[in-house]
Amino acid sequence: MFDLDGTLLNASSEISAYTQRTLQRLQASGVLFTVATGRAMHGCQDILQRQLFTLPQVFKNGVVIWNPADQEYSHHNYLTLEEIEHVLTATISQHLTPFMFTVEPGNVHAIYHPPLLNEVERQLAVDFKARSGVGVYPAAEMPGTAHITNISALGEPAAVEAIEDMIANEPGLVAYAGTALEGADLKWIDIHHIEASKGNAVQVLRAELGASRVLCFGDSDNDLSMFAVADEAYATSNAKAEVKASATRVLGHHDEDAVARFLRTRFDLGD
Q1: What is the C-alpha separation between 99 and 97, in angstroms, rounded?
Q2: What was the pLDDT predicted at 127?
Q3: Positive or negative: CA dihedral 228, 24, 260, 262
Q4: Composition of the chain by helix, strand, coil, percent to 5
């Protein structure tokens, strides 16, 4: 089970030619593999070659499992109405705009938001549309048939930390936060249902595929839940300290094909 960003992908967010050849050899050897990522399904289709990644895939940190054979989501953990209200109240109270990521009938994805409050949020809306390739719309246009997979926001660290504190007493929610790419003076937060974890998704796929042994590869705190249920867990050298501490072993840097080099040795795939 591979995380993507910071793990299987290089610094250009690509599967390198070396890693691609390694995965082809791994597939030929009969070892099953797939991905568990914080990305949405539609944000990965240009990365995941259809001939290689044929098994169910875990997206949005376990919110959904996508079955490429059926072109459907086989499992999902959407936010409930009560959880949505709690998150929106907390976010708006800190004068940040919540971005609501949705799945609609026909596996249509979209992002909705209330009025944007500043230039940072306006640019974030533009970036979301460019990176994800889905529509970004005013919240008033959200259809009643939409399911909310997760809610994200971007702002000053104190505001983001206040949101974390405000939702901490909600047993059905889990939040991930960190320094934003948009600037060191900003933090992002992403909130979804607590059952939506990579670890739970790994357990589901372990049972469905009849896997005798599970190896997980990751670099960030959203990988810790799958490290906890894996038979072997491997962190890249660029991983967060707590991830390295939880790993069976620390490999090299993700931009140096560390995972692929390990796989070639572990499964005798050749030089």
Answers
A1: 6
A2: 86
A3: positive
A4: 40, 25, 35
The domain ranges of the chain are 4-76+196-266, 81-193
Q: What size, in residues, is the chain? A: 271
Q: Which residue has the tokens 């993700």?
A: 254
d(CA 127, CA 171): 31
Helices (H), 110-192: 119-132, 157-167
Burial 156-189 (b: 16+ CB within 10 A, else e): eeebbebbeebbeebeebbbbbeebeeeeebbbb
CATH of domain 81-193: 3.30.1240.10
pLDDT tens per residue, range 187-234: 999 998 988 899 999 999 999 999 999 999 999 989 999 999 999 999
Exposed (0-12), middle (13-18) or buried (19+): which is 252, by Cβ within 10 Å? middle
pTM tops 0.90, yes or no: no
**Fold for domain 4-76+196-266?**
Rossmann fold (3.40.50)
* Residues 6 or more apart whose Cβ sits within 8 Å of residue 103: 64, 73, 76, 78, 109, 146, 147, 149
Measured CA to CA, the distance from residue 269 to residue 18 in angstroms comes to 12
Token pair recorded at residue 231: 């038979």
